[in-house]
Structure formats: structure tokens, C-alpha cells
């Protein structure tokens, strides 16, 4: 042991020298730069020198990393040989958990260029006429007075002669809102409604070329397209060419904007647009989102990047709508918070009234507007709830009816700044019967004809598509076509959460509803991305080796396509939201489940080719695959289980894939059938591994360690995997114990608790169980209560700062009023009540060489706090996992509440779609449920000098109800419908696994609440959490083959550049892949006011520059073509660019040929 320490010290000394010399170089570089403060565009020569220095530095960094990893390997090797010479480690010796330094990755100061810090440091520059949504919330009283016929608004009046000089221009936009699953499954809706709507559309639009129709969901459109003949397809194409049919947005679905991650939002848009390009040849220009439950600027950004210039939104808080209507700001340029100019602006129309149905779209009075929904004519299946039915238009009533409708149009126009009026005409699954087409189109045409033939009315009314409307609006609002600005329209920044449609009915329940599937969605996202990247790399490599025909590219590409579509479908605003019927949820779940299985196959097939040392030995066998994933999910609604690896004296290989663009040291755990394991790298270096017991969920109150010799064990070790690379480890059954067993301590011994001590583990049940529990790694120490097992204090060793960070659980009930919480709504019965378990919890403390953890088992939640003994990224945060089971509860919601000593006041921050951070304020003038917001990847609170971030691996609802608090709802069980059409409660709860990381960071600057960015460490920790390394097991049938690690990138990407996807594009003909990939990159915005010393970051920043020619190690980049986000448009910039550059926060797509 002593000898091993000496070697370690020796190794550390070498590496300190290396680090120090690197530091000196950096320092030198820094000095150079400060000496020439004017170096910039006026000194291109100096810039080149600087660039060369940076390049040089990068190379040195890479070399340094190599040296460091060599040192590390040698240290591991030496210490292993020392152990070898001494036999097995001293079991039972206190010091056996004492060598975390073996697992340490190098401490480094990461060179973050000052230029890269300017972005987050600059103040938010609000345009003079700009509106920031957080300011609007400050302003509003949220008093909800009765507004008369427009209940949530006000009386509108006008002068008859207002349009004398400029006539009113009315666009009536027929639309049919088709949910890809809600009360019926996607297929059932298609069979019963959607196919008839589309079939009738072809006939009825051709009858009169003045008719128009809008469609947006490509999931349905493509299914229908596959079923129709070429004649009908041509008819559809001619409707589109003539402008009668408009495809708006053109995504696979109309996605939810709260729970969705930007990876999946992009993916479903790309899938829809690619389908349109291949089949119809149309490029959508306008976004159309009438039903998502609140709106996010991330969607806006993606639409803009995809080449769209206009958009429409509908579900916005009624008080915000009213405020915007009073200000006449319902039409605005929606700008990103970081937008300095008009680059990110998109022209947005916010619908002013309660709903997108006909009663709430022609004008302020639903009783009148309903009379112009001709599907509700007497004798039909639906009627007007205001009890005044529509009348068929004839010569006798046309004047009276036209004037009545015109009055509504005129009133509506008073809420806007131009004389152009939009009147959507549609509802859910409308126009399914031929008779409805006739009723709507014939009656409206008579009304239009009357209006248009009476010049004294000063109106021009017609059917239009949404783009027809915007084409008229732009000149009317004097929008400059070049600068995309208007003297009439304001600029708005921020988001439209949390939505309320009436009273205190806030739609914050769906941020958490059906959390099991929100987690499953994220699992498919990360697996799909990982499979896309590996498949693209394999395909390019196969092509390079001229083995295209040997590799199952078509079969795998079909699996990927299906997975993209299943993931896309789940982004729908009744899918990921958890607001579908029980059997619809099962349908979605089954699709996600099958696609997870399929993309795992794609990953294994791709890794098979890539990891093979002798490519000549490659034979694909679908019945006997080389690689298999090490976990299995038994059913769509069950948690995955680890496969047990049966080890013998013949080595078994384990391939580990790192799907992130950073080199990585991460803890891998596999299940093995013996504690005696010899673990080695591919080159034969021994690796320290920890062995621990596998605990069954059923052992809640009776924990036994009996029958240990036959039980599976967890084998955990720190794997080192290059960016996007594969590493190979070998496992062999050893004669003696070569792994390091953990120590167990059980606290709060329950009467039923019985623990049999068994080799190789040491089990301790202390007599005095009142002392606080603590676990630690080289960086952090946490203390937990001995009675509850829950965290109380966290200490970061560097600087020795301690903070109170208490984790606890609370319950919410639902109100006793008529309206109660349901799938959409959160209507709690006041503040949360503390979770008080019926039984004292069982607390299990595990201390090991690779990780230590405290697991507390309550009746409704099994809560684990874990610290990884890694000096890199993994060691910087506390991992929190909760296995939640509230299946036996009645109208209850369970939340995890973190209470810290941070003085965060009423401020907190939540992410939007994992893409950007939105500052929040907890407002006493709003009900409790209004202060909950969606959390896709993180939420944080801060005070001067400290930030506490909760990172999440699934979307959930979050709030900070009191200073220093963060609270996340983990599951909800609700026995009733909440009157939004679903017709049921949420009672299909599953045992759900929630995963988080908690990160406490020192921040040197003061607090600027108007804008905020995560630190680089926080970004990368989030990426580790959402994209874990993936172990694959080599089948014993192939143990004669040799495998080689893979490092596809020449160097890891810059710290702030995220590879969103590397997605193989479909071939022009057939269902197989082309030779092109879509490279999608995101340059993250980050805050530099955090220490980056010893954080384990192994990358630097480069002002968003990427040397495309030098990106890959073996593959070469044949061409690079900049494209719009979804590949719809090719952008300027030429082919085969050597270097590309991204602006902060920018997402860019490139068409790339690899070989
Ligand atoms: Zn909908």
C-alpha cells in the first residue's frame, strides 16, 4: 500500500510539472494578448499569430492529455503490480476505501478565452419599444374582472368610417386540428377521421379555387400520402402549387413546448421537412401552433433557423392576452433574449381570445361567432352552447348576417395595428364530412360575396392561408423586407409560461403528469442520438473500406427512421405532456419502448464494425450479433434491468461507447456473477474496480444478504473513453478477490431488518445511530441526518465552504372546490405538507473506492445520494436518484424540496427545452400553482457568490416558493378529470425512476437577474447526466476476435460546442441512407464567472471555430454545405469549408460528406 502511494506521488509529481509548464505557456499567451489590446480586425497579421498560438496551444493541450493519461495508466499499472505482489487487498482494513487518487483525472486550469466570456457578460439590451415578459408579469395585477361578452377582455367600439380610406382586409383561414393521439390513438384517429378529412379536401378544394385549407401535422399527412395513388398525389401537389393548400410548420407533430428537449424538437421538424422535400417539394414559411399549452422562444428560434419568417401562437395566459390587446401588441417580432439585432426575430401573431375554435376566432363575442360555424346548423351533431344557432345564408338573410359578422371582424381588428384581420375557421378534426365542407365554404362564400360587392362597407373578405395573411400583413405593417423591422410592431422577448385559460386554472400539472414516460422519452432521445452518430461514423468507415454491401445499412436505416418518427410522435402536445387517454399512453409507450430496443440494435451493429481490429473478419449476423446492450427493459411500463455477465477464466470483452463530444472519465457499472473479477484495459493494464451487492426493490423492510455466493454483484469502475469513441475492457474471473468490496453501514435498524454479514462485504450496524452520516469524495463531503437519511449539509473541500442544503419530501393534495387537479391542471389544497412516513426508513450507507452513497427507503420513495470518487466532472456534483411509487395514493402529488441557506429571494431560473435559461420570479400575487414552471434540464437559485443548480434527466415541474428553495414535483395521482376534454384522471402511475444532479458552484460576480447562463461545468454535467456512457457486451461466441478502441475525433470539440446530431440523410431514391450526413452543432452560451480550476474539464474554447478539415481522425470531410436547420434551404458559404464558426447560442446545420 505504501509503495503504491509512492508511485502515485511520483506520477503526480510528473504531471504537476506538465501542468505547470502548460500554465506558464498560457500565462505567456495571456500576457501577449494584454500587451496588444488593440489587436483585432485592424491587425489581421496579429490575429493570425494569435490564431496560430491558439492552435499550437490546442495541440499542446492534446499532447498534454496524452502524457497525463499515459502517466495515469502507468500509475494504475504500477499500483496494480504492487497489489499483485502483495496478493489481495486487505479486506476489512479501514484504509481500503482510501485511494481515490488512483481515479483522479488531471487537475487543469482550462483556458477560456476572454472573447468567449463577453457574450454572457454583456447586459441585456432591450430595444426602445421592447417588451420583456418578466416586466409584463410585474406590471399585471391578474385580477380577472368580467369583461362582458368577451369575458376575459373588454368592450370594443369603433367608428363606422374608420376604414373609409383603407378597407378592412379579412382572411378566413380554414384549418383542421388533428392531434396525433389524444382520446384515440394515432392510428384510430387516422382511420376514423383524418383520412376522410384529407380525402374530402382533395375533392372540395378542387371545386372552387377560391377555397383554402391549412395542414400542419406531417405524421398524418405522410401516412395518408402512402395510401393514395399517383393521380391523387398530383392533385394534391397542384393544390399546393396554386396556394389553396398550405402546409404550415411542417413538423412531424405540433410539439409541446414545455417538456420537449430541443434535440427532439429539431428532430421532428427535420423529419417532417425531409419528408416534404422528398415527396411534395414544398418549404413551409409559417409556424402554426394553436394548441400547445404555453409557448417557448426555443420553438421560435428553431422555426427561424429552419427558414420560417412568420408564426402564430394561441394558448397564452388570458391576462397577458388582455394586456397585449390593450397595448395592441398582439403582433410583434419575437426576439431571443440574447438577440442584439433582428437576426433572431420572427413575426408572431398571438390569437387574442380564449380558444382556436370558431366561436372564439371571428371576433370578441362567442355567441355571435358561433352562429358562423356552419357545422353547428340545426339538425347537426353539434350546436352552439350560447343557444343561438347558425342560419344557412340565403338572399333573405345575407345582408343581416354579413353585417353581423363584419361587426365582429371590425372589433377584432381594433386589437391590432393594421387593417388586416385574421379569422381562423376550424377546430379539432374538422372537415371530416363532405357536407361540412359545403356548409362552411358555401355559406362563407355568400357572406364574402355580399361584403365585397358593397363598397360602402369598405371590406375585402376572402378565404386565405396563414401565409396569405402574413403576406398582406407585412406591407400593411410597413415591415421592411430587408431589415425585417417595422415602425408599427414591437419587439418581445421572453416566454409564455405558465398558461392559464381561466380563473386560477394554471396548466402546470402537465409539467409532471405521467413522469415515467417523460423519462422514457429522454432515454430514447439519448439512445437515438447515440445511434445516429455511431451509424453515421460506421457508414462512412464502411464506405471508405469499400464494404458498403456487407454492412446492413438499409435495415439499420429503417430502424432509425422508425425511431425518429416514434420519438417525433411523442413530442406531440398530448403525448409527452401526459394528457392522453390511458390506452393512448400505452400506445406511445409501446412505440418508445420498441424504438429504444431498435436503436440499441443499430448502435450494436455500428459498433461491431467500428471496434473490429481486422475489418476483413467482419461478418454481420442478425441472429447472433457480436454486441449486446447490458440492460433490458422487460416491458413498456417497467424499469430496465441489468443483464448479469457470466464470467469465466476466458476473458470477456466489454465495449464502452461515449456519445458525448468530450473525452470522458465516467463510472460504469455492470452486473457480474462473481466478486472475483480481473478487469483490464484492451492493452492489458489492470483497472481498479469496486464490487458491491445488488439490492432488490422488494427488500424494503426486510433486507437480507443471504445466499451471497450466487447473487449477482455490481462491478463499478472509472472508464476512460475518448469523445464519440469506443473503449474496450476485458473481464476475467479471477482466482482471488482482485476487486475492492464496499463497506456497508445500516442505520435506524428496523425491527424487521436483518442483515447477515457476508464476505466479501463488511457490514456494520452501529449501536449509536444518532450521529450524522457522511460520505465524501476528493472534492465534496455531504452530511445526512441519521434519522431520515436525507442530506443536510454539503461542503466543497476546496475553500472549505459549507452550505446547508436540506433535501426533503412533501405532499400536495387537491382543492375541495368543484374544479380539481387533473392531467393538465395543478389545483392544490394550499401549501405542501411534510412527508411523514408510517415506518422509520431503512438507511444504507455504502462506502467504496469508486463511489459512496446513502440510500434511504421510504414507503413511497427510495432515495439515493451518491458521490463518485472521480476528480473530474463526475466528482463535482451529488447524484440524486428517486424511485417513486405512489400507486396506492388518492389525489396526491409528491415533491422533492431542497432547502438551502442561499438568500435567493424571489428569484430563480429554469431552462427552456434544454436550450436556454429563463429568469423567474416567485410572485405572491399569483396562486401557488402559477409559480411552477417547466424544467427540461435544469433549475437554479443563486446569491452573490454561490449558485445551486438542480440538473435533471427528465422533464418535471419546478418552483422556488421560498428564498433558498427549489422544489420539483415527481409524480401525481389524480382521481378526476379536470374538464379540458380528456375525460379521465391520472391513475395509471408506474414505479418511476427520477434522476438528478445537484451542483453547488462558487460564482465571483454579482447577480444579474435579467439574463443568465449556466457555467461550462453545469452544461457538461447536464450532458453527462442526459447522455451516459453505454456499455455493450461482446457475445462469448466471438471471443477469438480482437478489438481496437476507436477515437473518431482528432480532438474533443471545444467545451461550449455541442454536437446535437450527426444524422445520416435519406437517399433520394428508396428508404436507405445517402452518403451525406446532417451535422448539427450548438454553441452554448455560458457564464465565465465561475472557477474552472480543477473542474475536470478537458477542453478549451475557440470562439466557436471548428476546423472541419481536421475534425475527424481517420475519416475525411469531403464537403461541407451550410444549410438551414432542417436542410430545407441551402445557405451561402460554399462547399468544403475548412473552418466553420458559430456565434454564441447559435444552432447550425451543415450537409457533410464523410469518407
Ligand atoms: Zn391538440
Quantity of strands, as a count = 49
Strands side by side in the biggest sheet:
24-23-30-31-32-33-42-39-38-35-36
Q: Span from first to last CA?
A: 50 Å
* C-alpha Rg (nearest Å): 31 Å
Percent helix, as a range, is 25-40%
Protein name: Alpha-mannosidase
Organism: Scleropages formosus (Asian bonytongue)
GO cellular component, one term: Golgi membrane
GO molecular function, one term: mannosyl-oligosaccharide 1,3-1,6-alpha-mannosidase activity
Describe the structure.
The protein is an alpha+beta fold and 1155 residues long. It has 18 helices and 49 strands. The strands form ten sheets. Strands 24-23-30-31-32-33-42-39-38-35-36 form an eleven-stranded mixed beta sheet. A hairpin with a 6-residue loop joins strand 26 and strand 27 (791-796). Helix 1 packs antiparallel against helix 2, helix 8 (262-279) packs across helix 16 and helix 15 (515-544) runs antiparallel to helix 16 (553-570). The two termini are 50 Å apart. Residues 1-45, 65-105 and 698-702 have low confidence and may be disordered. It binds zinc ion. Residues 177, 179, 291, 573-574 line the site of zinc ion.
SSE layout and pairings?
Layout: H1 2-35, H2 44-86, H3 114-121, E1 130-132, H4 133-139, E2 168-177, H5 186-207, E3 213-215, H6 218-227, H7 230-241, E4 245-247, H8 262-279, E5 286-289, H9 297-305, E6 310-313, H10 318-327, E7 331-335, E8 346-350, H11 366-369, H12 398-413, E9 420-428, H13 434-452, E10 459-463, H14 466-476, E11 491-493, H15 515-544, H16 553-570, H17 582-611, E12 627-629, E13 631-632, E14 641-642, E15 644-645, E16 652-657, E17 664-672, E18 677-681, E19 690-693, E20 713-721, E21 726-733, E22 740-741, E23 743-747, E24 762-764, E25 773-776, E26 780-784, E27 791-796, E28 801-812, E29 833-834, E30 842-847, E31 851-857, E32 861-868, E33 878-884, E34 892-900, E35 907-912, E36 916-921, E37 933-935, E38 938-943, E39 946-952, E40 956-959, E41 965-973, E42 992-1002, H18 1016-1026, E43 1030-1034, E44 1057-1066, E45 1073-1083, E46 1105-1107, E47 1117-1123, E48 1139-1141, E49 1147-1154
Helix pairs in contact: 1-2, 5-6, 8-16, 12-13, 15-16, 15-17, 16-17
The structure holds zinc ion.
Subcellular location: Golgi apparatus membrane
Enzyme class: hydrolase
Family: Belongs to the glycosyl hydrolase 38 family.
Amino acid at each position: 500500500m505504501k509503495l503504491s502511494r509512492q508511485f502515485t506521488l511520483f506520477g503526480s509529481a510528473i504531471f504537476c510539472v506538465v501542468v505547470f509548464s502548460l500554465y506558464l505557456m498560457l500565462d505567456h499567451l495571456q500576457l501577449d494578448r494584454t500587451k496588444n489590446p488593440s489587436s483585432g480586425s485592424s491587425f489581421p497579421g496579429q490575429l493570425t499569430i494569435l490564431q496560430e498560438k491558439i492552435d499550437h496551444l490546442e495541440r499542446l493541450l492534446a499532447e498534454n492529455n496524452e502524457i497525463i493519461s499515459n502517466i495515469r495508466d502507468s500509475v494504475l499499472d504500477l499500483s496494480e503490480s504492487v497489489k499483485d505482489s502483495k496478493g489481495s487487498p486487505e479486506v476489512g482494513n479501514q484504509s481500503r476505501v482510501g485511494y481515490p487518487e488512483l481515479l483522479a483525472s488531471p487537475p487543469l486550469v482550462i483556458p477560456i478565452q476572454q472573447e468567449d466570456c463577453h457574450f454572457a457578460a454583456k447586459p441585456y439590451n432591450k430595444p426602445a419599444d421592447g417588451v420583456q415578459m418578466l416586466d409584463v408579469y410585474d406590471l399585471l395585477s391578474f385580477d380577472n374582472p368580467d369583461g362582458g361578452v368577451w369575458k376575459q377582455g373588454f368592450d370594443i367600439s369603433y367608428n363606422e368610417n374608420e376604414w373609409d380610406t383603407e378597407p378592412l382586409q379579412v382572411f378566413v383561414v380554414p384549418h383542421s386540428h388533428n392531434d396525433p393521439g389524444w382520446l384515440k390513438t394515432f392510428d384510430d384517429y387516422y382511420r376514423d377521421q383524418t383520412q376522410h378529412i384529407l380525402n374530402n379536401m382533395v375533392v372540395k378544394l378542387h371545386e372552387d379555387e377560391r377555397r383554402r385549407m391549412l395542414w400542419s401535422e406531417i405524421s398524418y399527412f405522410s401516412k395518408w400520402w402512402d395510401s393514395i395513388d399517383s393521380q391523387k398525389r398530383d392533385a394534391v401537389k397542384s393544390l399546393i402549387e396554386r396556394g389553396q393548400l398550405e402546409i404550415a410548420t411542417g413538423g412531424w407533430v405540433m410539439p409541446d413546448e414545455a417538456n420537449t428537449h430541443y434535440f427532439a424538437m429539431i428532430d421532428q421538424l427535420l423529419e417532417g421537412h425531409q419528408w416534404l422535400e422528398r415527396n411534395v417539394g414544398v418549404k413551409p414559411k409559417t409556424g402554426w401552433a394553436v394548441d400547445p399549452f404555453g409557448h417557448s422562444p426555443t420553438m421560435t428560434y428553431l422555426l427561424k433557423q429552419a427558414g420560417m419568417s412568420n408564426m402564430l401562437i394561441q394558448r397564452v395566459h388570458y391576462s397577458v392576452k388582455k394586456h397585449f390587446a390593450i397595448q395592441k401588441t398582439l403582433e410583434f417580432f419575437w426576439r431571443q433574449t440574447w438577440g442584439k439585432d433582428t437576426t433572431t426575430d420572427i413575426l408572431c401573431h398571438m390569437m387574442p381570445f380564449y380558444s382556436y375554435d370558431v366561436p372564439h376566432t371571428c371576433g370578441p363575442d362567442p355567441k355571435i361567432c358561433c352562429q358562423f360555424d356552419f357545422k353547428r346548423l340545426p339538425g347537426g351533431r353539434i350546436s352552439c352552447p350560447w343557444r343561438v344557432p347558425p342560419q344557412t345564408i340565403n338572399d333573405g338573410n345575407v345582408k343581416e348576417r354579413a353585417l353581423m359578422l363584419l361587426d365582429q371582424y371590425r372589433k377584432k381588428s381594433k386589437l391590432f395595428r393594421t387593417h388586416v384581420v385574421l379569422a381562423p375557421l376550424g377546430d379539432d378534426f374538422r372537415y371530416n364530412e363532405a357536407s361540412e365542407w359545403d356548409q362552411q365554404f358555401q355559406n362563407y362564400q355568400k357572406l364574402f360575396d355580399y361584403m365585397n360587392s358593397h363598397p360602402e362597407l369598405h371590406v375585402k373578405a376572402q378565404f386565405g392561408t396563414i401565409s396569405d395573411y402574413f403576406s398582406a400583413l407585412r406591407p400593411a405593417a410597413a415591415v421592411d423586407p430587408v431589415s425585417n423591422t417595422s415602425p408599427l410592431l414591437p419587439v418581445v422577448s421572453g416566454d409564455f409560461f405558465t398558461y392559464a385559460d381561466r380563473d386560477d386554472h394554471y396548466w402546470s400539472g402537465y409539467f409532471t403528469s405521467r413522469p415515467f414516460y417523460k423519462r422514457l422519452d429522454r432515454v430514447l432521445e439519448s439512445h437515438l442520438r447515440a445511434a445516429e452518430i455511431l451509424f453515421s461514423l460506421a457508414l462512412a468507415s464502411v464506405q471508405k473500406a469499400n464494404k458498403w454491401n456487407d454492412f446492413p445499412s438499409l435495415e439499420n436505416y429503417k430502424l432509425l427512421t422508425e425511431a425518429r418518427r416514434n420519438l417525433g410522435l411523442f413530442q406531440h402536445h398530448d403525448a409527452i405532456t401526459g394528457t392522453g387517454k390511458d390506452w393512448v399512453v400505452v400506445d406511445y409507450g409501446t412505440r418508445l419502448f420498441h424504438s429504444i430496443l431498435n436503436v440499441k440494435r443499430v448502435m450494436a451493429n455500428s459498433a461491431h464494425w467500428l471496434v473490429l481490429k481486422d475489418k476483413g473478419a467482419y461478418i454481420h449476423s442478425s441472429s447472433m450479433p457480436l454486441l449486446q446492450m447490458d440492460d433490458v427493459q422487460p416491458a413498456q411500463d417497467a424499469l430496465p434491468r441489468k443483464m448479469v455477465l457470466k464470467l469465466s477464466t476466458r476473458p470477456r470483452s466489454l465495449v464502452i461507447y461515449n456519445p458525448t463530444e468530450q473525452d470522458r472519465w465516467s463510472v460504469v457499472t455492470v452486473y457480474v456473477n462473481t466478486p472475483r473479477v480481473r478487469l483490464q484495459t484492451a492493452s492489458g493494464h489492470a483497472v481498479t474496480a469496486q464490487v458491491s451487492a445488488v439490492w432488490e426493490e422488494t427488500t424494503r423492510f426486510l433486507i437480507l444478504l443471504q445466499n451471497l455466493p450466487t447473487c449477482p454483484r455490481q462491478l463499478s469502475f472509472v472508464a476512460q473513453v475518448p469523445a464519440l469513441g469506443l473503449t474496450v475492457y476485458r473481464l476475467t474471473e479471477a482466482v482471488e478477490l482482485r476487486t475492492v468490496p464496499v463497506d456497508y453501514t445500516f442505520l435506524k435498524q428496523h425491527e424487521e431488518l436483518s442483515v447477515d454479514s457476508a464476505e466479501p462485504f463488511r457490514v456494520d450496524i452501529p449501536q449509536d445511530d444518532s450521529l450524522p452520516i457522511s460520505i465524501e469524495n476528493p472534492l465534496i463531503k455531504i452530511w445526512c441526518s441519521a434519522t431520515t437519511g436525507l442530506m443536510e449539509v454539503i461542503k466543497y473541500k476546496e475553500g472549505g465552504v459549507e452550505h446547508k442544503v436540506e433535501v426533503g419530501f412533501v405532499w400536495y393534495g387537491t382543492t375541495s372546490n368543484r374544479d380539481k387537479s387533473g392531467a393538465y391542471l395543478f389545483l392544490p389544497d394550499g401549501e405542501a405538507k411534510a412527508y411523514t412516513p408510517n415506518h422509520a426508513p431503512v438507511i444504507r450507507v455504502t462506502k467504496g473506492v469508486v463511489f459512496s452513497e446513502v440510500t434511504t427507503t421510504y414507503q413511497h420513495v427510495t432515495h439515493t445520494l451518491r458521490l463518485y470518487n472521480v476528480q473530474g466532472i463526475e466528482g463535482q456534483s451529488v447524484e440524486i436518484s428517486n424511485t417513486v411509487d405512489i400507486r396506492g395514493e388518492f389525489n396526491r402529488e409528491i415533491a422533492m424540496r431542497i432547502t438551502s441557506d442561499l438568500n435567493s429571494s424571489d428569484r430563480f431560473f429554469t431552462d427552456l427545452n434544454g436550450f436556454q435559461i429563463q429568469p423567474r420570479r416567485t410572485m405572491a400575487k399569483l396562486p401557488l400553482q402559477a409559480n411552477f414552471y417547466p424544467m427540461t434540464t435544469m433549475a437554479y437559485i443563486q446569491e452573490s457568490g454561490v449558485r445551486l443548480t438542480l440538473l435533471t434527466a427528465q422533464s418535471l415541474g419546478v418552483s422556488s416558493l421560498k428564498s433558498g428553495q427549489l422544489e420539483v414535483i415527481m409524480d401525481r395521482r389524480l382521481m378526476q378529470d379536470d374538464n379540458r376534454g380528456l375525460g379521465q384522471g391520472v391513475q395509471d402511475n408506474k414505479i418511476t425512476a427520477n434522476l438528478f444532479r445537484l451542483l453547488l458552484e462558487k460564482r465571483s460576480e454579482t447577480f444579474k437577474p435579467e439574463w443568465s447562463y449556466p457555467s461550462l461545468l453545469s452544461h457538461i454535467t447536464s450532458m453527462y447526466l442526459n447522455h451516459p456512457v453505454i456499455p455493450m457486451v461482446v457475445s462469448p461466441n466471438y471471443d477469438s476476435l480482437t478489438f481496437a478502441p476507436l477515437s473518431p475525433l482528432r480532438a474533443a470539440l471545444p467545451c461550449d460546442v455541442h454536437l446535437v446530431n450527426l444524422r445520416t440523410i435519406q437517399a433520394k431514391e428508396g428508404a436507405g441512407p445517402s452518403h451525406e450526413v446532417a451535422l448539427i452543432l450548438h454553441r452554448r452560451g455560458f457564464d465565465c464567472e465561475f472557477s474552472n480550476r480543477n473542474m475536470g474539464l478537458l477542453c478549451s474554447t475557440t470562439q466557436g471555430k471548428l476546423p472541419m478539415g481536421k475534425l475527424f481522425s481517420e475519416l475525411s470531410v469531403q464537403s461541407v454545405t451550410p444549410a438551414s436547420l432542417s436542410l430545407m434551404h441551402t445557405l451561402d458559404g460554399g462547399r468544403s469549408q475548412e473552418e466553420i464558426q458559430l456565434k454564441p447560442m447559435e444552432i447550425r446545420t451543415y450537409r457533410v460528406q464523410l469518407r
